[in-house]
Every structure is written in C-alpha cells, then in structure tokens.
Amino acid sequence: MEIQHTPHHSWAEPYKIKMVELLRVTTREEREQAIREAGYNTFLLRSRDVYIDLLTDSGTSAMSDRQWAGLMMGDEAYAGSDNFYHLQDAVREYYGYKYLIPTHQGRGAEHLMSRIMIKPGDFVPGNMYFTTTRLHQELAGGNFVDVIIDQAHDPDSRHPFKGNVDMEKLDRLVQKVGADHVPYISLEGNVNMAGGQPFSMKNLRELHEYCRKHDIPIMLDATRTIENAWFIREREEGYRDKSLRVILREICDLTDGCTMSAKKDLLVNIGGFFACNDKELFIKAQNMVVVYEGLHTYGGLAGRDMEAMAIGMREAVMEEHQSARIGQVRYLGNKLRDAGVPIVNPIGSHAIFLNAREFLPHVDQDDYPAQALAAELYLEAGIRTMERGNVSAGRDPETGQNRRPALELVRLTLPRRVYTQAHLDVVAESVIDLYARRESIHGLKMTYEPEYLRFFQARFEPL
Ligand code: P61
Fold first, then answer.
1. Residue 456 known to be catalytic
2. Global confidence as pTM
3. For residue 132, how far is its CA from the centre of ligand 1 (angstroms)?
4. Which of 291, 345, 394, 457 keeps 20 to 30 A from 93, CA to CA?
C-alpha cells in the first residue's frame, strides 16, 4: 500500500465542525478560589471552571458523526454482542492480533495482564514507567526496571527515537536475574512520560531478535502506537512511502500482544482492550476478565462503546487525521520554542511538555515546581495542564523518599479534534507571559498524600 503525499503543506483539519460545546471564561478571583479549593491540584478542579482543558488527551477527543451514529447501533446483549465482533475484526485488521479481550479502559487491561503474566519477585523491564502500568506490575509482585535509552531522560537531547530500548540495559537485567524472572518486556509507543517520544522499527527489530533468543514476550502498550508509526515514517530510512497501516502492522507483528487505552489514538471517550496471539494466554485473560471487568465479549463496556471504538480505529489510521493531529501539536510547540520557553525536544505527538526545572530553577524539586507551574497557568489563564514530575513519580518503595525524577515537566496535552489554532494562540501567549514573570512563582507544600497514584488526589498549599 503506497501513500500519497499531499501537495499542500498545511496540517489543516480533515473535517468541519457540526456541533459545539460552549466554554466559560472565569475571572481571576474565581480561579483563585477554585484552585485553592482544589488544593492546587489541577485534577481536583471542576471542569466548569476551566477555559481550555489540556489536562489530557485521554477520553477527551471529539468523536465523528460516524462514531456517534455507531452509538445508535449498540447491540446491548449481555453475551455475544455484534459490536464485539466488529471490534474484533478491526483489531485483527489493523493491529493483527488474533485474540481480543475488551476492558473498560487501559488500566483494566494492564491489571489483567499483570495478574496473568507476573509472578511475585519477577522483574518487568519497560521503556520508561507509566504510572498505572508500573503500579499494576508492582501490585502483582513484580519490580519495574527502566531500560529506556539515557537520552529519554534528557529534555534537551534531540535524539529522533528517545523511546528506544537500551539493549545493553536490558541484557544486563536478563543476565543478572535470568530470563525466567522476566515474564515480558513492556514496550510503549510514543512514550508518554518521556514527552511522547517514539521507538524506531530498527530498535524494535533488535528487541524482537533478542527476545526470541531468550524466550521473553514483547507486550506492547499500544495506546499511542499509531502516532509512533507516524514518526517512523517521518524519521526512519525506508518508511517514507509506507502507509501508517502498514507500519502499524509491522510493529504489532514484531510483538506478542498488547494492552490498549482506546481513549487516546482510537478517538473514544471510554474503552480499552488486551490482545494477544497466544491461545493459552488468551484463555487465562478470558478467565480473569469475568472476575474484574465483565463477560469476555464486553469487558466492562457497553456494546455502543465497542462500536464507537471499531469506527474510531478506522479513522485513527487515516493519514490526514494524523497529519492534522501531529501538525497541531507542533504548531503550539514551535510557538513556545520560538519564544524561548523551555520545552522537551523533539516535539512529541500528543502534548507539549514544559521543562519546569528550567522554567523555575529557583524552586527545589521537593517543593514541586511542575505542580506549582500547572497551578499558576490555571490562575493566569484558566488553562488546565498536568504535572509530570516529582509528584507523579511518587516515592521509592525501598527508601520512602520522593523519586526526584530527571524529568520535571508540565504537560499541555491536546485532545484530538477539539481545539482550534486560535485556542492554541491563547495558550502560547499565556505560557509566554508566565515565562516572563517566572521569578514570581513559588513552590508548594504537600498537605495530603494518598497511598496509590498520589498525583490524582494529593493536596497542596503555597509555601
Ligand atoms: C493520560 F495522569 N494515560 O496520559 P487508562 N498507558 C499509557 C497511558 O497514557 C495511559 C494508560 C496506559 C492517561 C490517563 C491517565 O497518571 C495518569 O485508559 C501510555 O487511563 O486506564 C493513560 O490507560 C492507562 C492520566 C492515566 C494520568 C494515569 O492522561
């Protein structure tokens, strides 16, 4: 399948707007009260108090008219819903995995996979941690080991594939603990916590060869893998004329299965799945899903949700969709970078990440600079973003100390097909204004810390 390169250079949206949702603009006084009541945590704000919501691209994208029409085609039978079979067909066609288990969202699939595959005391290597992924590995008795290349932890490195696995780090782990104690390697496309950074096909091929030799399955976190395919085409030798679909299949064919949060690439508000090629693994997952999610033909979803996901999958692999998606993120990133605002480079696919360490060098990491910056951007302009630094990384289970990760970031995440270029101009202007008065921004003190995934519900006070 050959792709047609379009004659124009703009990333213009391949759709027009049929329905709109009105936004509310708040006053500075209203925002001061709202953020105080939210304990300076953007997760605790009410959405009605937010003007431009860049908290996440998860479940926040706009569905197409076809997807909405698909909702009306929901077959809400308890067992054997037609929509399940539509979804299974789509997964087989685009991802190529034989067996499918729907789940309510990504972490549902991570839970099942971790419970089935990890034995207490095992080690699970991954190309950087993701919060829910690592927690499920740990709850199953495993230990996460970061095997991403060093450049991923450096916001200024311009490495084109910062999501790559460092094969030496992986081999060192396998030599140390033995392949029997490595149940799988967790491989994420467009690594979220690194700034949305892709792995290369070359790296995946090496990984595949290594894992075959040691009999270690590769389990893909497929959440943003179509976006990863875009970067492979753009940056890797030999892929310029391949379609996203072909590249996606090539990725999946080099792996053994996946977990998926369909709330990202797949353009739905809710949904996920586990998929694999091994029948035994599938049977175990099928048995586990009925305990925690629902019957194996719906896994916690309504029939209509599965239909919207199947249609979303077809739209997500469209070239013009991804061109606009990634073009929009770059538009914002280039504006900020041109103004001298420190961001993670290269610009990833789903978000722009402010480098809070460089933005606020006067704030110690244990005074949570990224958390403080996210709160301040809300105060400044009603823009909601997400901390991805010391709060998100949590505490080291052994020492009980904050992990103080190398990356201390604020994520400006773009929902798909939701905001316009003018909204992004407002965002850029607000961040640039804030950067000009950065010395007036101070750190925060944590006053409440939940046990799990603390960043969701932690509370803070200004120092
Ligand atoms: C996000 F603050 N991501 O980026 P679920 N894998 C990957 C994800 O990005 C992901 C999941 C698995 C979210 C939502 C979120 O610390 C947080 O469907 C690469 O959300 O269960 C989710 O998929 C989990 C935000 C999750 C967070 C955890 O905004």
1. no
2. 0.97
3. 7
4. 291
